[in-house]
């Protein structure tokens, strides 16, 4: 298996065009990410078709390191569809994806377990949301 193929896969799933635009922004900052994919879901897509798209993408990204699935909103269709695969696939799901999480995801230590990576991304995302006035006043 190649070095790229042995890295953790990253799947971004979100409403509308958000997932692809987040991937575009990530690659603008970090360069190409061959182990990352984006899936756009909208209300017109049948649930069975959406689930099949998610399963296909997870399978394509799967490696011994697993796949991190990053969704936009916990409880929304992207998150719920990903959750329907949780027991069948070696994945971890982090809801509430933002650009700091994505940037951190592609630079994580590959020796970490999939669970540890997901926990680190959750914490990193939380810790990288700022109210600008707090930052400049020294409160954060």
Number of E strands? 4
Largest sheet features: 4 strands, parallel
The CATH C-level name is Alpha Beta
- Indicate the mean pLDDT: 92
- Structural class based on helices, strands and sheet pairing: alpha/beta
Strand neighbour order, sheet with most strands: 2-1-3-4
Question: Can you name the CATH architecture?
Answer: 3-Layer(aba) Sandwich
Q: What are the low-pLDDT stretches, counting only 5+ consecutive residues below 50?
A: none
Whole-number count of domains: 1
* Rounded Rg: 15 Å
Helicity level, as a percent range?
40-55%
> What coarse outline follows from CA principal-axis ratios?
globular
Quickly count the helices.
6
Can you tell me the CATH superfamily? Answer: Phosphotransferase system, mannose-type IIA component
What is the strand content? 15-25%
Question: What is the chain-wise order of helices and strands?
Answer: EHEHEHEHHH
CATH topology-level name: Rossmann fold
